[in-house]
Specification:
It is a single chain. With about 300 residues, the protein is α/β, with parallel strands linked by helices. The chain folds into 2 domains: about 10-135 and about 290-305, 3-Layer(aba) Sandwich (Rossmann fold); about 140-290, 3-Layer(aba) Sandwich (Rossmann fold). It contains 11 helices and 9 strands. The chain has a 5-stranded parallel β-sheet with strand order 7-6-5-8-9, with helices on both faces. The relative contact order is 0.17.
Length: about 300
């Protein structure tokens, strides 16, 4: 069996193209399994996984839990709102106490960039980054490209547009890294105030005219405006943002071509995208949700295999 080249999934930057291909191949296998009447493959029934979410999450947390249950692992769910962190305990002390319970793998979401890297240096458990601040969200980047690959085939030289709040988005960075590795052309479209400094160094281009950007692309991944990460206003109001950068039927009709629409969620309908686009035949948003379980099953399974855990 082929092995991953990494021991922790901290970000896409540390992956090789062989890792991505192996994850995609394994996810394809697991996607077939989870669409059968009996969806479980109890390969990891001797492994205990702790889900440590220090930020609110619905889709990612449920997706990881379902992936873990499909693989038959034991699960510990941690809520920071009711933990000793409220009493001043550090992240490392909290995690060490959990590890004392013989946890094999940790899925971590934390508001601080680099938190998963820090944890990997202080523990012997396998760490999976489920989002660290505005840094990376590697499994989302993988599942988005996996979903595009299903619809477009080989992504080499395909034109992929990312629309929305690039400055505060960990999803954007993980998508850029993944798409670059797969040979896609990446363009960004949003207000210039939401473009990170020196982002062009990541082999992307910028187009502030959303209609021109849509005309160029084969697929558009739409990101929400992350107001919870903003300390100031980056554009006048939601109405103006929607008029200039929101996807709606008028803009799609102007380009006179079919493009694939993605959105990692949660969706702010009427701001970055309208309901008719979300529910159109071009939308693969629900495919992303299904593929998220398969990709996370693949990552967990492959990391467990790499770490020589008991695999049945």
């Amino acid at each position: 069996m082929n092995k991953l080249t990494f021991n922790h999934l901290l970000g896409i930057k540390s992956l090789k193209i062989s890792d991505i291909k192996l994850i995609f191949e394994t996810a394809t296998h697991f996607k077939e399994i989870i669409n059968r009447p009996i969806k479980k493959v109890p390969s990891l029934r001797d492994i205990t996984i702790a889900n440590l979410f220090f930020e609110n999450s619905t889709r990612t947390k449920i997706s990881f839990e379902l992936a873990q249950k499909r693989l038959g692992s034991d699960i510990i769910n941690f809520s920071s709102s009711s933990s000793s962190l409220k009493k001043g305990e550090s992240l490392i002390d909290t995690v060490n106490n959990i590890l004392a319970m013989k946890v094999d793998m940790i899925v971590l979401r934390h508001p601080s960039p680099g938190s998963s890297l820090l944890l990997s240096e202080y523990t012997n458990s396998c760490i999976i980054n489920a989002g660290d601040g505005a840094n990376e969200h590697p499994t989302q980047g993988l599942l988005d490209s996996f979903s595009l690959n299903e619809k477009l085939g080989d992504l080499k030289n395909k034109n992929i547009l990312i629309v929305g709040d690039i400055l505060h988005s960990r999803v954007a960075l993980s998508n850029i890294y993944t798409l670059n590795m797969l040979g896609a052309n990446v363009k960004l479209s949003c207000p210039l105030s939401l473009i990170p400094k020196d982002i062009e160094n990541l082999n992307v281009s910028i187009e502030t005219d959303i209609v021109k950007a849509l005309q160029w692309c084969d697929a558009a991944n739409v990101l929400r405006v992350q107001k919870e990460r903003m300390s100031k206003s980056y554009f006048p109001n939601d109405r103006e943002y929607s008029m200039l950068f929101g996807l709606n039927i008028d803009k799609i009709n102007k380009i006179k071509k079919d493009i694939i629409i993605l959105h990692p969620g949660p969706i702010n309908r009427g701001v970055e995208i309208t309901s008719d686009i979300v529910e159109s035949n071009n939308s693969i948003i629900l495919d992303q949700v299904e593929n998220g379980v398969a990709i996370r099953m693949a990552v967990i399974y492959l990391l467990a295999s790499k770490m020589n855990f008991s695999i049945n």
